[in-house]
Design brief:
The chain is built from ten helices and 13 strands. With 404 residues, it is α+β, with helices and mostly antiparallel strands. A six-stranded mixed β-sheet has the order 2-1-3-11-10-9. The longest helix has 18 residues, at 37-54. The termini are far apart.
Length: 404
């Protein structure tokens, strides 16, 4: 049985091009429909596939930004070739998009997502950090600058300051919510690609602080804990499904929303149903209810994980070994992904939500294979053994070999 997981689907997904909203026929607030529908579909499917892999871990709370991961991998994908490219495309679900189409769609997406209304702040930043002297394919750098607005800064990864420099950029672009994305970067690191997202939104209908009161939150195996439970009664979009209830809590001018799903069964039974097609069906089934009553805990969440193993489980394997083909990033290739670190956190209170996420992809250079050479031109030891029994038949040292 999986441990209890606080699944705030809207926060995990609101920064995706789907944002749920593109599937609902609401008024002018739905700008996401201007993005290539194939990217929307790909990102949605990838979001749930990766989420299901993350749920296999031991953490009680799982919270991440699919948009951040997808954007960081898209930047990296611009330099992939061969089997590495094919596996990344399959894992991300972008096989039916050419590279130019993917980049153009992501550029549109980045433009649309930035600061959707006066009461919602969404800031997305990208960067490349090549090692000093590391050769980059010019076209790779140009595409990331043009389509992802990526900052490009050379770094000396042999210096202890390198990790602080990269982490400092992440902190600056997440309003200091994420201050240490990378624990370390090796001297062999050749390139780091980073995406950072910051979100701050005020509820369209705020919760009255005076109405917040301590209440029980039911943990697994019959346990309970006391939490500050927020309360509001309003006209809201709601859904009563099979063994769950859900509500849409909009921010600002209602372009961005949090969708909260509360299962009546074990949480794992609900999360096992999470697919892009099921998500679309649910979102299209919400309907407005007058005097809807909502109790929501005031809470925070912090999550950090390494994504290599989950992505390998989804079929992205070649990128992480010595056979990786990123010849579109550096002439001749020879680089592989050594780290994919993701960190996300959020605070939900009566006024709204503040959240941040960052994804860092570190690439190292494959060490060349040194041919083995033994030259016994100095004093040496030797032994003659019976390998079946382990018996040493002879042993000795030669300091002055006698020659016939």
């Amino acid at each position: 049985m999986k441990k209890n997981i606080i699944v705030v689907l809207a926060l995990a997904l609101l920064l995706l091009p789907l944002a749920g909203c593109a599937l609902l026929e609401r008024n002018e607030v739905i700008a996401a429909k201007e993005v290539d529908a194939r990217l929307v579909e790909a990102n949605t499917g990838f979001a749930f596939r990766l989420f299901n892999e993350l749920l296999k871990g031991d953490e009680e709370n799982v919270f991440y930004s699919p948009a951040s991961v997808a954007l960081a991998l898209s930047m990296t994908y611009n330099g992939a070739a061969g089997d590495t490219e094919k596996e990344m495309a399959h894992t991300m679900g972008i096989e039916n998009l050419t590279l130019d189409e993917l980049n153009a769609a992501n550029k549109d997406l980045l433009t649309i997502l930035q600061n959707p209304d006066q009461n919602v702040e969404t800031s997305i930043a990208n960067s490349l950090w090549p090692a000093e002297g590391a050769p980059l394919v010019e076209e790779f750098t140009k595409r990331n600058e043009e389509f992802y607005n990526a900052d490009v800064t050379r770094v000396d990864f042999t210096s202890h300051d390198a990790v602080d420099i990269v982490n400092g950029w992440v902190a600056d672009n997440t309003n200091n919510r994420i201050e240490k994305l990378f624990d370390e970067l090796k001297p062999t690191t050749r390139l780091v690609l980073v995406n950072a997202i910051f979100f701050k939104g005020g509820w369209t209908h705020t919760f009255d602080k005076e109405a917040t009161a301590d209440a029980d939150f039911h943990l697994p195996v019959g346990r309970r804990k006391t939490v500050p439970m927020m309360y509001q009664q309003n006209t809201l979009s709601c859904l009563e499904g099979d063994n769950f209830k859900a509500v849409r809590l909009p921010y600002g001018q209602e372009r961005v929303s949090m969708y909260v799903f509360v299962p009546e069964t074990e949480l794992s039974t609900f999360t096992d149903q999470l697919t892009s097609s099921q998500w679309e069906e649910w979102l299209n089934s919400f309907s407005e209810k007058e005097d809807a009553t909502v109790f929501l805990p005031r809470f925070s969440a912090e999550y950090k994980t390494e994504l290599i193993n989950p992505l390998m489980q989804l079929g992205m394997v070649a990128a992480f070994g010595g056979g990786a083909d990123f010849s579109g990033i550096t002439p001749g290739g020879g680089w592989f992904i050594s780290q994919i670190v993701h960190q996300a956190n959020l605070d939900v209170n009566e006024e709204g939500t503040e959240a941040a996420a960052a994804t860092g992809v570190a690439m190292d250079e494959s060490a060349p294979l040194d041919p083995f050479t033994l030259r016994a031109d100095r004093p040496f030891f030797f032994a003659i053994c019976d390998d079946l029994t382990g018996t040493i038949l002879f042993m000795g040292t030669i300091t002055n070999p006698e020659v016939d």
